[in-house]
Amino acid sequence: MICSVGNVFPKLVKLFQYLVIITVSCFILITLFLALPQTEELIPEEILEERRFDLNIKDEDYWKKEFFLQFEEGTNIRERRETKNIIYQRLRRANVEEIQVKETDVEGSRGLKVIVQTIQDETFIEDLISERGYMELVVPKEDKEAEEDGLDAQMYMRENYKSTGWDREAFRNILIRQLPDEQHNQVYFAIFKEWPQDRGDFANFLREQQGKTIGLAIDGFVRPVQVDQQALEIFAVGLGPDRQNAEFHDIIFNTGVIPANYSNIESNEKTPQIYEIDHIQTTLAIIVSIIILTTYIYFKEKVSTEKIMNLGLCMLLTFSTSFSVLKIYQIPTDLFLLIIAGILTIIFIKMIYLRYKHIRTLTIFSLFTAILMVFLGTGYIIILGQYMIFVILLSIILQVVIRYYFETIKMISK
């Protein structure tokens, strides 16, 4: 019995090794096939089922506009600077690719010129620029409390309510979360987090309004809110199921209130500046670069054939997997950023193979730099940083897999 078990175990190890080789080989072939340009034309339509499978290049989706925001008379320097900073932060959080916000003269008075180029929804961006974002909780006026609610349009008008003093500054944070409603549908809620010193006063305010309808007023539009028992524990306002609407309120609530009023807003259409790069040429350039680099390293650094094969396959598989992910999930892509990211990726993979003893330091430093790009950058810098985080982690995983892949082949071939 012991002998039979001893004979079975090496066979299981051998079987596992064959499965590893087959699995990794299939993964290499599939990702290479998917990553190559125009391979989607070789896939039967029955498999695609009217889905796009090419690279989702953003060039045709870009639009560009120039906004002129004229301040009202009496707007001071501090208000102008604060308005400029808030608009910039809003556009940055909305993932606008190109942003320019600067003070200028508009029809003889001071104002802001805002230039944006992006693929984001145009109305969404225009609202972020034009809305002040002033928020406060309001209660109906005495002569309106007896009116029948429901379809009454006046319940949405700010003049039918009075202020309570609970505005944006009274809350530490306003979180946007997707939660189930009473019908168990997933909708977005704005959860209000008051300051610790105001917690008691806010709880008393809600108890006074329990069973009544108050309002959340944002720039003159009122959203009625029923104060029930649950609101006494967590005060949350429903925003509906639309994700973009939830994102809009998240940005408006958490980037500050624009202090200046606009006397006039104008906008002009502009021609987007697009870096036209051919997808096929980009792919060929990456492949040629990998071949040239690995050949140069092989003769210059005097590395072994096995190591150079590891290096070349890791580079190739990192790019093929990245392109496959972009195509499968239809992630909007800027080709010129892929070229920059490709160069940085080749440098990183080359360093971790030739300086393997310092792989941990190189990885931590590279990831830290990419994270800084995401959190401190703007526009294209953020996108590049996100892509670099993905390819750095991917290349680290792949280099481990490829090393084991070649070691397994050597063990079987003995």
Can you offer a commentary on this structure?
This protein folds into 3 domains: 9-56 and 277-413, Multidrug efflux transporter AcrB transmembrane fold, CATH 1.20.1640; 63-132 and 259-273, Alpha-Beta Plaits; 135-257, 2-Layer Sandwich (Gyrase A, domain 2), CATH 3.30.1360. Helices cover 50% and strands 21% of the residues. The protein contains 12 helices and 11 strands. Strands 2-3-1-11 form a 4-stranded antiparallel sheet, with helices on one face. A 4-stranded antiparallel sheet has the order 5-4-8-9, with no helix packed on it. A hairpin with a 2-residue loop joins strand 2 and strand 3. The protein is elongated and about 90 Å long. It starts with a helix and ends with a helix. The mean pLDDT is 86.
- Note the beta-strand portion: 15-25%
Evaluate the radius of gyration. 29 Å
Terminal Cα span: 29 Å
Largest sheet: 4 strands, antiparallel
Question: What is the strand tally?
Answer: 11
CATH topology of the largest domain: Multidrug efflux transporter AcrB transmembrane fold
Element order: H for helix, E for strand? HHEHEEHEEEEHEEHEHEHHHHH
Averaged pLDDT, please? 86
What general form does the structure show?
elongated
The total number of structural domains is 3
